[in-house]
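Weekly structure sync, notes
Attendees: PL, DS, HV (note-taker this week)

Item 1: 4-carboxymuconolactone decarboxylase
DS walked through the input record. Source organism listed as Leisingera daeponensis. Sequence as pasted into the shared doc:
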Amino acid sequence: MTQDRYDRGMQVRRMVLGDAHVDRAEAAKTPLDQPFQELITEGAWGTVWASDRISLRERSMLTLALLAATGNFDEIPMHIRATARTGASQEDVLEAFQHVAIYAGMPRANRALKLAKQTFAEMESEEGETP
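Item 1 (cont.): predicted structure, written out as C-alpha cells:
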C-alpha cells in the first residue's frame, strides 16, 4: 500500500461519499476485508477518482453507466447519493442510463433508472426531515 495514495483516496472517498458513509464502512471493516478496503481506497479512490483529468461530475456519470451496464446494481444507490457532492444532476443520470439502454440493454437501464428514482426520492425526503 502506498500511504500517500491511500490518504488521498480516503480524502476523495469522504468528499464524494460523505463522512457518514465512510465512517460506517470503516467501522464495519474486519481483518478479513481490510486488505480489500485498502485496495478500494488506494486504487479506486486514490488513483481513478483522485485524477483531475475529468471532473467528479463526469466520473459520477461514467461510474453509474458502468455499474448499470455490467449489472452491478447494488452500488447504484450509493453513487446516486454521491451525485449530491459531485454535481451530477438527475438529468445527467438519465443521460447516462439512456446510453446504457442503447449500448448495454433496456432491462439494465430500466432497473438502474428505477433505483435512481427511488434513491433520489429518499434523498429529497431526507432533506425535508428535521434532525
